[in-house]
Amino acid sequence: MWSKQEFMLSKHRFINQFFKKGGIYLSAFGQQSLYQLPEIYGETRITLMPVDHHLLYTYWEISDEKLRSFKEKFGIKLFESSIPALKITNISKNTSFLIQLNEFSTSWYINVPDSGCVYMAEIGRKFSDDFFISFASSNHVLMPNVNISLNTAAYFVNCKDILKVMKEYSHTENMAMYAYINDIASEMEKTLSSYGIYFNES
């Protein structure tokens, strides 16, 4: 059993090692080791994320097996005559463009002209401006809209109005209506309180 002093010393060593080496520091029975996330997973995939209204971020991995299969199918000379590239597609407007990469890139920031649109990305090889072979396709992302929403269908309920209606039904025999409204108010109050917003009956 560790003493309090030994425990605190071990705790400080844990924190120091964690922040110095950037991994998950494990300690068991006096033996310590460092675990770090692998740099590659041996999978061919690409992920796309929105950053703001006009900026995307993507990261990817192309497995050795995928590259080997490509070279066997199309030949090494064709592979060497191509360059790695990203194909960014605006699905909403049916437009796309290519971004030339270097052989060592595994992530990229992408500026896009249109906000409020759905985008996807593909990682592959570019042979010409019109010839691109895709290795993997990303998820679809919806960019935030830079303009004010034109959707007028949304209706925002004033919590105080609900409480006012509850008071009107609290002295009637319509218990079903009162119970229904009370459930709505309770759920709204619970949701608002989770964001640190509270309201009263005044």
DSSP helical segment count: 5
Which CATH top level class of the largest domain fits? Mainly Beta
Query: Kindly state the mean pLDDT as a whole number?
Result: 77
Tell me about the largest β-sheet. 5 strands, antiparallel
Radius of gyration: 28 Å
Class from secondary-structure proportions: alpha+beta
Shape: elongated
Distance between the termini: 58 Å
Domain count, please report it: 3
String of helices and strands? HEEEEHHEEEEEEHH
Query: What is the CATH superfamily label of the largest domain?
Result: Immunoglobulins
Percent helix: 25-40%
Task: Kindly estimate the percentage of residues that lie in beta strands according to DSSP.
Answer: 25-35%
Secondary-structure topology with pairs:
Elements: H1 4-21, E1 24-28, E2 31-35, E3 45-52, E4 55-61, H2 64-74, H3 76-80, E5 83-90, E6 95-100, E7 107-111, E8 118-128, E9 131-137, E10 141-142, H4 159-169, H5 175-194
